[in-house]
């Protein structure tokens, strides 16, 4: 098997499947948390509490792991290493702002479709920064995944789709590149050394908490603190469903960090893309709608892409494998004959 043909183990498959289900649940929990079609809580507090929850969980797991195996739990206390951890949070911060800017120029349908560009941009950055080669089958698989995701979203698009100004498409491309860059850079960071995953998470989420707190404070300052300081009103309007949104988002983030540490960003891309299709399928079932042909085609295309990406290229030419076996046997027999002749 070629060295660039990825192998998915049972644990990775289980985590990826769980990530797909958790990601698909996020949109459903978020929609269900609305009351009368509105959010009664400050939605900007959700990422902050999610980062805080991930930090608490990672800190607890780190403490337990270090207590059981101090030598096996590797913790690098080095400023040169620690200074790299704010970068993913900064990229996501810029990405969120670019997303809002993009929506000023394009409609939601076009925005969703442009978002699929991150599938291919991830593959490109995966190759450039991580030096991970993808064979032709894998490149076509990523393109096929992007097409499948786009097909499923075309349904219901009006004449306004793809009629946005040029700025909208440029920002959409920038947003896709930033999303891919954040994922690829985080994978680079997680695999940079043999540090404990829990310790790496603690560093990542500490900066996540910090930057989200700063963002909330700046937002309050821009509004003149009309509703008071966010820290005093953080739980206003929260319900059980709101906490489901927070905890599910935190759980999803922990799964992603595991995948980026022990698998790769492409696994994450497939999990989140399949989650989008699962969400659409579940939504159609919950709201009594018939799945349309676009959704079914999207699911089939994405499934074919998944199979193509993890296919051994030699499986396309089984006759070559069969042809190689007799030649090997002949070589062995000829070696035996030569040895007997020498004797």
Please describe what this structure looks like.
By secondary structure, this protein is mainly α. It has two domains: 10-311, no CATH class; 319-343. Helices cover 72% and strands 0% of the residues. It has 13 helices and no strands. The protein has helices at residues 10-32, 45-68, 79-82, 86-102, 108-115, 117-130, 136-154, 166-190, 197-222, 240-262, 265-286, 293-309, 318-342. Helix 1 packs across helix 11 and helix 4 (86-102) packs antiparallel against helix 8. The radius of gyration is 24 Å and the shape is globular. Residues 1-5 and 327-336 have low confidence and may be disordered. It comes from Cymbomonas tetramitiformis. Keywords: Membrane, Signal, Transmembrane, Transmembrane helix. It is found in: Membrane.
Helix content: over 70%
Task: Give the helices and strands as they follow along the chain.
Answer: HHHHHHHHHHHHH
General shape = globular
Low-pLDDT stretches are: 1-5, 327-336
What count of domains describes the coordinates?
2
Kindly report the average pLDDT value: 85
Q: Based on DSSP secondary structure assignment, what is the total number of beta strands?
A: 0
Our estimate of the beta-strand percent is under 5%
What class would the helix/strand composition place it in? mainly alpha
The number of helical runs is: 13
Rg, rounded, reads 24 Å
How would you describe the oligomerization state of the chains in this entry?
single chain
Largest sheet: none
Distance between the termini: 37 Å
Main location: membrane
Transmembrane segments: 111-130, 137-156, 168-190, 202-218, 238-259, 266-287, 293-311
Family: Belongs to the nucleotide-sugar transporter family. CMP-Sialate:CMP antiporter (TC 2.A.7.12) subfamily.
Protein name: Nucleotide-sugar transporter
